[in-house]
């Protein structure tokens, strides 16, 4: 817990969430008291209370008056996409970001892209390139290829919001995902769009998604300035 860019209560909430999702804390387990958590994390009671409030609001914890705080049984939810948009990821961590630039175009699939999208080489695909960041700093670039359908817009303005919410408007619910991450050096395109030098450390995340049993597939290469992004793995299913 050492990310100074995030509020302390967000970092603590993330750590507590990990304990729940990893099975360290089971359903109906009583978590440590606020006083004990203050000692563990060396923070004020107000900070601990804000962290717990966040997890209560997310349905992960519940309080029993004059007894304590317990792990909540997860409710059965309506089917949703298994992935979060980048802006949603960042907002959940207390950092407000938005799409700075979006560009959509139609291309012919290369052998590599055709393989990931389960189509034939040369078939039409949609390529969406986006830059994310704050008003002061651009720190992420996404290069996304996805299955061509005539109902998808080719207007850049339609892709400034959440990509996965846009897909849901066509009843496309992404329910399968594979990812890996690696450290890379920035290429000329990244140096230009993120306004960095060629020695800036970059985290690359490759994401492959699909709607099982349907034709939709996505292949994305996501690049982040290393000092501005941290990849959390804390959602066990």
TrEMBL record:
Span of domain HTH gntR-type: 6-74
Gene Ontology process terms (BP): negative regulation of DNA-templated transcription
GO MF entry, a single one: DNA-binding transcription factor activity
Keyword Cytoplasm attached: no
Keyword hit for Cell division: no
Pfam families associated with the record: GntR (PF00392), UTRA (PF07702)
InterPro entries: Bact_HTH_transcr_reg, Chorismate_lyase_/UTRA_dom_sf, Tscrpt_reg_HTH_GntR, UTRA, WH-like_DNA-bd_sf, WH_DNA-bd_sf
Keyword terms: DNA-binding, Transcription, Transcription regulation
PANTHER family documented for this protein: GNTR-FAMILY TRANSCRIPTIONAL REGULATOR, MANNOSYL-D-GLYCERATE TRANSPORT/METABOLISM SYSTEM REPRESSOR MNGR-RELATED
Descriptive protein name: GntR family transcriptional regulator
Species of origin: Enterococcus termitis
């Amino acid at each position: 817990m050492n990310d100074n860019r995030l509020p302390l209560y967000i970092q603590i909430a993330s750590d507590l969430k990990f304990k729940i999702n990893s099975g360290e804390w089971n359903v109906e387990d009583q978590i440590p008291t606020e006083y004990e958590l203050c000692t563990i994390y060396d923070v004020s009671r107000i900070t601990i209370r804000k962290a717990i409030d966040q997890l209560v609001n997310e349905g992960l914890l519940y309080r029993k008056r004059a007894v304590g705080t317990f792990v909540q049984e997860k409710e059965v939810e309506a089917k949703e996409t298994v992935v979060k948009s980048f802006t949603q990821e960042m907002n959940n961590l207390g950092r407000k970001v938005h799409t700075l630039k979006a560009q959509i175009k139609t291309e012919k699939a290369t052998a590599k892209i055709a393989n990931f999208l389960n189509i034939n080489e040369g078939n039409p695909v949609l390529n969406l390139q986006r830059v994310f960041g704050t008003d002061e700093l651009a720190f992420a670039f996404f290069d996304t290829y996805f299955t061509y359908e005539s109902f998808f817009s080719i207007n850049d303005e339609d892709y400034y919001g959440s990509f996965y919410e846009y897909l849901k408007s066509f009843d496309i619910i992404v329910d399968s995902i594979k990812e890996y991450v690696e450290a890379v050096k920035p290429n000329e395109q990244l140096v230009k769009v993120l306004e960095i030098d060629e020695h800036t450390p970059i985290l690359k995340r490759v994401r492959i998604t699909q709607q099982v049993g349907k034709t939709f597939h996505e292949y994305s290469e996501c690049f982040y300035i290393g000092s501005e992004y941290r990849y959390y793995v804390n959602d066990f299913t």
